[in-house]
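yo, Ribose transport system permease protein is done. seq:
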Amino acid sequence: MTLTTERKTMTQPSFGQQIKSTVFNEFSWIWGGTIALFILCSFVAPGVVRPAAISSMLPFAAILAITAVGMTIVIQQRGLDMSLPGMMTIAGLLFAQIGFTTGSTLLAVPLTLAIALGIGIVNGLLVAKLNITPIVTTLATNAILMGAVRAVSGGSPMTAPAELAEFSHAKLFGVPMTLILAMLFIIVISIVTKRTIPGRRFVAVGANPAAATAAGIPILRYQVATYAIASLCFAVAGMLFTGFIGSASQTAGVDYLLPAIAAVVVGGTPFNGGRGSVIASGVAALFMTQLGQMVLALGAGTSVQLLVQALAIIIAVAVRHIPEYFGRP
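structure:
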């Protein structure tokens, strides 16, 4: 055996190790867990797995998946964006306000997204440039946004523009448009982060900012862009939610903060930066939504639903250590 062959044998994992790392990894468990949940639902709450129930559940799962995508990339940068509730809520209100004022929803979309982009950039600059703790920064931003919500709404909900409501309820070949949009978000961001040079640099910045700086990577640019993209995700989710329920309320995004974080954790993305999977977070969003449907069908109250979400997070964190067990000699 030549020296080159020996080196390849030493560095390349065996076929069995490759299969083990693919099946037993921190991002693969959510697939089996989601399938198991649907099987469990068919026994304990068969009503929630009927086609009509699943069809009505998917748009909410899609909206949660979009928020989870934004939260995933922030957590990959060792941050946490607590401005999600305010961003979702103000985006729905701004879209409705601009749409009715200008009479054009085509104009309302880019203007709302531009405002969201600006807010995200400010968040990113405060975190990356001034080194303010992400939780403190985004909590402050959320407080400002919720104040803006009251100023824009005047204390009462606004009716969603008809075009937005039609789009949010529309289907393409029987698939909700909200779900298609969520899948586009997941696919595009997954390809960018895993298959492109900027995406690999983004992962490197999240994994070790000091090493990334030493390697000549402009970490400020990536950190600011992270919060900007997250705000765009939250704004899109807020507009879709407003269109789906038919009105822009003052509390539209409040119920999405914990489920979004839970979806990221359950999906397997760790809080120590770098590694992450928006695909797993998207599947986890489906898991969390269906879990909520099952709990509701069993007649549980809000307190029980929150308890179940907390247990899901704890179990997900525990399951994450199973691949380490299988990887031991």
